[in-house]
Amino acid sequence: MAKTPDYAIEIHAKVLYTRFKNSAIKEAEQYAKKLKKSGDLDGHEVWMAVAHEINKIMKKNIKKVKDTEL
Question: Residue 43 CB: number of other CB atoms within 10 A?
Answer without folding.
Answer: 15
